[in-house]
Amino acid sequence: MLVPDNLKYTREHEWIRVEGDNVAVIGITDYAQSELSDVVYVELPPVGKQVNKGEEVASVEAVKTVASVYTPVSGEIIEVNEKLKDDPSLVNKDPYGEGWICKIKMSNPEELKECLSAEEYKKLIAEE
Amino acid sequence: MVHPFLPLTDKDREEMFNFLGVKSYRELLKDIPEEYFYKGELNIPSAISEEEAVELLEALSNENFHNLKIFAGAGAYDHYVPKVIPFIISRSEFHTAYTPYQAEVSQGTLQAIFEYQSVICELTKMEVTNASVYDGATALAEAILMALRLKPERKKVLYAESIHPNYLAVVKTYVNLEGVSLEGVKYDRVTGQVDLNDLRSKLDENTATFAFQTPNFFGVIEDGFEIRKILNEKGALLISVYNPISLGLLAPPGEYGADIAVGEGQPLGIPLSFGGPYLGLFSARMEHIRQMPGRIIGETRDLEGKRGFVMTLQTREQHIKREKATSNICTNQNLCALMALIYLSLLGKSGIKELAFQNTVRAHYLLDRLVKETPVKRVFSGPIFNEFVVELPIEAEKVIERALEKGILAGVALSQFGYSEKWMSIATTEKLSALDIDNYVTLISEILRG
């Protein structure tokens, strides 16, 4: 199971990559996509929406189940991965790259401190 | 106490109570506040034998009018039901089948629903149809909820006041959401059609959808094309409530650009049955399918490449998405959908045209004769299909009562829906012969003269 060292993680199996000016890129982890198996649809949030930490921002649908994606940080949705509309399987094929879900302009980057490190996340999935 | 139909003995119950750690059945319901429990004795007669029950029910059934000539419509229509329908649906494979969750053992049921969805799509020219919902009224309420999900930033719902009042009552119960307002659009007092100026004045950027019915509650045909144009100015969704038989002659909702099309499927070979079970027809544009409520059956191929059918897009549904599901209706009207499928298969493309024609010809003929030969007045000038509203010189209830003595159900008194007590809605179907209509006209003139 791929858990890149340069990312932050959540207990709900999201990953976060911080880019440039307080922008958090959010996706679901390799472990999450393998548990869901074939992703058939990703419901994306509207760009411009203000979201609070812990809020549902997207949902990832597999053939027989659906998982909510929660944001670990508050802020504004500034971009969503439009490619997922045509090819939701990108979440399976490349969860940390082409399969990203949305970008949030963080209003309180301090919230990131509550996220897990790669080591902590590895431990979490080993226990599950 | 041991009961012939209930397998539990007092001892079984006691064991279950002991296991659960409760003393009585009542204790299991302790979350319900005391004041909500009914205190008196229920008015249920004591048990009778099967033979006595049959006798009682037959006696009740004999009180029904037999061979009544039905000129009443207002949402449910007395069409002929071909004998092959009860024959096919009585097969136990269809009659006893439950929800086809397990595709491997449900191919017959799944194929029937798939074909039902396909024929409703053909009839309405809509791109996708679900496996059905409860009835026309719940279909409309679900359609409005769906429109609100499709336009989450908009909080206003407009509806035509010429929609069936019972449907609107269901909508008002069902679409009871914080921040969402429901507003009626008036009908033109002369034509009986949607007052387009009123629609224009109430429509704004906050309007998610406008719902109308055609033919409407007064039997008057609306102009879906013009309404669509008006809605486009503000980007609102169009919900159309239609009578499936009328689509043999009238432009289908898909042609005038409805986003969601719903209707009561009862006219499609489903008996009147004292008001139900009926069939909620529910179709939409493909682009809206993710927000569509209810079950959808899809066609696929199995491992060997053979054609097969499965429940598809189930992640919208309650058994997977729980409280975030598109609807909390988690079943469909399978047997009634099958009746509609058989009915439409029997009619075919030319049959439904002929049927629609036969229905409308009778309504126009009857209306002409009533207006010319009796003191009855036509209320609305708009074009009609199989139904119209007349104003009588006396109370409609009285006319209906007198006509019943002669074996004719003359119509529906609209006073029960808050309209004038002299207004009566009259509908015709292919079951009424020229002689039936002549007799009706004669009887109405006699009643009104006498």
Automatic annotation (TrEMBL), chain A:
Family: Belongs to the GcvH family.
Alphabetical GO biological process terms: glycine decarboxylation via glycine cleavage system; protein lipoylation
InterPro entries associated with the record: 2-oxoA_DH_lipoyl-BS, Biotin_lipoyl, GCV_H, GCV_H/Fam206, GCV_H_sub, Single_hybrid_motif
The protein's required cofactors: (R)-lipoate
Pfam families, alphabetized: GCV_H (PF01597)
N6-lipoyllysine PTM positions: 64
GO CC entries: cytoplasm; glycine cleavage complex
Domain Lipoyl-binding: 23-105
Keywords: Lipoyl
Assembly and oligomerization: The glycine cleavage system is composed of four proteins: P, T, L and H.
Cross-referenced NCBIfam families: gcvH, PRK01202.1
Functional description taken from the UniProt entry: The glycine cleavage system catalyzes the degradation of glycine. The H protein shuttles the methylamine group of glycine from the P protein to the T protein.
Residue spans crossing the bilayer: none
Record has Cell membrane as a keyword: no
Protein name: Glycine cleavage system H protein
Native source organism of the sequence: candidate division WOR-3 bacterium
Cofactor note: Binds 1 lipoyl cofactor covalently.
Automatic annotation (TrEMBL), chain B:
Catalyzed reactions per annotation: N(6)-[(R)-lipoyl]-L-lysyl-[glycine-cleavage complex H protein] + glycine + H(+) = N(6)-[(R)-S(8)-aminomethyldihydrolipoyl]-L-lysyl-[glycine-cleavage complex H protein] + CO2
EC number: 1.4.4.2
Gene Ontology biological process terms, A to Z: glycine decarboxylation via glycine cleavage system; nucleoside metabolic process
Keywords, ordered alphabetically: Oxidoreductase
Pfam families xrefs: GDC-P
Membrane-traversing stretches: none
Listed InterPro entries: GcvPA (IPR023010), GDC-P_N (IPR049315), GDC_P (IPR020581), PyrdxlP-dep_Trfase (IPR015424), PyrdxlP-dep_Trfase_major (IPR015421), PyrdxlP-dep_Trfase_small (IPR015422)
Broadest EC class assigned to this enzyme: oxidoreductase
Record-annotated Glycine cleavage system P-protein N-terminal domain positions: 5-441
GO MF term set: glycine dehydrogenase (decarboxylating) activity
CDD domains per record: GDC-P (cd00613)
SUPFAM superfamilies the UniProt entry points to: PLP-dependent transferases
Highest taxon in the source lineage: Bacteria
Function statement: The glycine cleavage system catalyzes the degradation of glycine. The P protein binds the alpha-amino group of glycine through its pyridoxal phosphate cofactor; CO(2) is released and the remaining methylamine moiety is then transferred to the lipoamide cofactor of the H protein.
Quaternary structure and interacting proteins, as annotated: The glycine cleavage system is composed of four proteins: P, T, L and H. In this organism, the P 'protein' is a heterodimer of two subunits.
Family: Belongs to the GcvP family. N-terminal subunit subfamily.
HAMAP family found in the cross-reference section: GcvPA (MF_00712)
Protein name: Probable glycine dehydrogenase (decarboxylating) subunit 1
Organism: candidate division WOR-3 bacterium
Gene name of the encoded protein: gcvPA
